[in-house]
Amino acid sequence: MVPKKKTLMKNGSTSTVTSSSSQKSKVEDTKKSKKMNNNQPLETETSKESFYASPLYDFLYPFRPAGSQWMTEYIIVLFAIIIRCAVGLGPYSGFNTPPMFGDFEAQRHWMEITQYLPISQWYWFDLQYWGLDYPPLTAFHSYLCGKIGSFFQPNWFTLGDSRGYEGQDLKTFMRLTVLASESLCYIPAVVYFTKWLGKRRNQSPIGQFIAVAAILFQPSLILIDHGHFQFNSVMLGLTVYTLNNLLDEFYAFAAVCFVLSICFKQMALYYSPIFFAYLLSKSLFHPRLFNIPRFAAISFATICTFASMFGPIYFFGGENGGITNLLQSIKRIFPFARGIFEDKVANFWCVTNVIFKYKANFTQEQLQLYSLILTIIAFLPAMLVILLYPRKYLLLYALSACSMSFYLFSFQVHEKTILMPLLPITLLYTSTDRNVLSRVSWMNNIGLFTLWPLLKKDGLSLQYWVCLILSNWLIGNFSFITPRFLPKVLTPGPSIIQLGENYRRPTLLPSNWIWKVIIVLSYVMMGVIHFVDYFIEPPSAYPDLWVILNCTLGFGCFVLFWLWNYYKLFSMTKKNIHQL
């Protein structure tokens, strides 16, 4: 029988009503208790969120009920800045290593030459030292930073006299320029991108900010920009702004942002085939044929932005002449004379060069042609997919495939270039598919591993290990030891309490057992290579043996991910944004 109860009415009479809701609640409680007794996790909506039951999720869980998530955003950004400041306390590229020093000195030197020399000499001055070899927007950015620095201490940027200066005051200022640039260009772009995708996919606000945190805590960019010392976050931030404008269908503004990204660092060209195909398709084929006004607006915005960047190089060419000055800047920006790869890098040319010496068997021009052919073959499928299916949710997979193709097969690649494919890969932390998240986490770890020789040379070993462990712990990669083997104080947040004492957090590994073996085996090999690198001297005949092993492992993992990425790109053409 259905239980009934009496209810007092306004007029004092009583009425009998069915308490079906009470009965339903009891049934649900019984089911929950049975699940708890069987040590099984509850299937809730929250369990489908990114990094559910990870330390990162647990840290931010208390803010879940808040109507406004401004406090969550504030905490994430503040924590990200603190981590970057902590890394910046360490050494940098070229610290105390005269006469050339390193990238820190190169950036400082560009800040002084852009202040004290006319534009006509920027790409000609002292090319044997640290001649300017980045596009004009980098030069303008250096000029602005140098002017601000000279306001506080002119001796930092006195042409000639300040060469090699390494005072703590200068280091603090230079670190702050990177921090300010990233705070203005990269962090807001990532927050907007993640919110946009989250809202269209009905993701909770706290879930969106957990994805933001996972992206901002990517260790490779932190260690290169705030440890080694560069301004990659400006270029990458402008690229994310390009994506944001494409999501909002502001195509001309997207073209402006991407041209600015290229004009800051030429490596942004790794993304150009995809953005070109997407904009072309949206202008000529989708949603209607030959949208001439849109095509004209994109073309006009692109030409005007390039003209505004390179125009000063031409019009202030000085005695060299505008054309000569412009050609010199392009020659400096694309240094083909340096060779097919720089130092040891985890790409096709460097790894296979161990077996077959390319430079001894081919001319420089031949290698340029072969690398061009291989690169086009590698990225062309991604470009064609975007041309035929210009869908927003395909952009990340297409950009990952294209930029990884450039990294693996293009000419004159160095180890820091891995930041290019890592950007769209890391943005896939917005996915709620644990199979995707596991591979994204894996790629971030492998990418950081390939940077180890560079970071070790810079004296950033401590920062490397702390960032590697912290980033993996936050997203739940160490869940197999939590909370079973660690005290509850190291499993913060209420989510683990709600799920019961015996609940075991899921590991961040894919469901496919073959991929599980590949990922775990690659981590074991990483550990072995680190061990021999620390404790065993390489043979005198092969001094770079451990570095070559590092590159070989990285190259193999990159190729496997690249192939899987293409599989996802092709399969996603028949899906929607909710299945990202």
Automatic annotation (TrEMBL):
Recorded topology in the membrane: Multi-pass membrane protein
EC class (word): transferase
Coiled coil segments of this chain: none
InterPro entries, per database record: Glyco_trans_ALG6/ALG8 (IPR004856)
Family per similarity comment: Belongs to the ALG6/ALG8 glucosyltransferase family.
Species of origin: Naumovozyma dairenensis (strain ATCC 10597 / BCRC 20456 / CBS 421 / NBRC 0211 / NRRL Y-12639) (Saccharomyces dairenensis)
This protein's UniProt keywords: Endoplasmic reticulum, Glycosyltransferase, Membrane, Transferase, Transmembrane, Transmembrane helix
Record field: transmembrane: 74-95, 173-194, 206-224, 250-280, 292-316, 367-387, 394-413, 462-481, 513-533, 545-567
GO CC terms: endoplasmic reticulum membrane
UniProt EC number: 2.4.1.-
Gene that produces this protein: NDAI0C02630
MF GO annotations: dolichyl pyrophosphate Man9GlcNAc2 alpha-1,3-glucosyltransferase activity
GO biological process terms, semicolon-separated: aerobic respiration; protein N-linked glycosylation via asparagine
Skewed-composition ranges (Low complexity): 13-24
Localization in the cell: Endoplasmic reticulum membrane
Pathway it works in: Protein modification; protein glycosylation
UniProt-annotated stretches for the region Disordered: 1-46
Protein name per its UniProtKB record: Alpha-1,3-glucosyltransferase
